[in-house]
Amino acid sequence: KAELGVRIGNLPSQLSGGEQLRVSIVRAVAHEPKVLFADEPTANLDNESSKRIMEIFSELHRGGQTIIMVTHEEQYAKLAQRIVHIDDGRIVSEKKQ
Fold first, then answer.
1. What Rg, from alpha-carbon coordinates, does the chain have?
2. Could you give the CA distance from residue 25 to residue 17 in angstroms, rounded to a whole number?
3. In Å, what is the CA distance from 49 to each residue of 13, 57, 65, 91?
4. Among 36, 65, 68, 91, which residue's Cβ finds the most Cβ atoms within 10 Å?
5. Nearest alpha carbon to residue 58 among 30, 25, 86, 33
6. Which residue has the higher pLDDT, 2 or 45?
7. H-helix or E-strand containing 94?
8. How far is residue 13's CA from residue 21's CA, in Å, rounded to a whole number?
């Protein structure tokens, strides 16, 4: 899923930001957590890397993984089943899609 096989011998410093993030996602789900927390997973990534990260999250969710993601990017928030807006530590709106 993460498409990192060709980079298996590389050090973390030799990976792009998107590749490093995909490695961290793989490491996190390897432990089969009930909930996967993702804080701004697409921050500082190019569009292609961001799309790939969101595709991985979609695949994981279809497989039954619960994901809680914090993002400021509306296009990715719209992919969620449930959106909670928080302002100054308080829930200001909540909707299910």
1. 14
2. 12
3. 17, 13, 21, 30
4. 36
5. 25
6. 45
7. strand 90-96
8. 12
Q: Tell me if 58 sits within 8 A of 38, measured CB to CB.
A: no
Angle CA(89)–CA(85)–CA(59) in degrees, nearest 5?
Answer: 120
- In words, the CATH class of domain 5-96 is alpha beta
pLDDT tens for each residue of 29-60: 888 899 999 999 888 888 888 888 898 889 99
In the block, tokens 């927390």 appear at 37
DSSP assignment string, 9-76: T--GGGS-HHHHHHHHHHHHHHT--SEEEEESTTTT--HHHHHHHHHHHHHHHHTT-EEEEE-S-HHH
Identify the H or E element spanning 8.
none
Give the Cα separation of 85 and 81 in Å (integer): 13
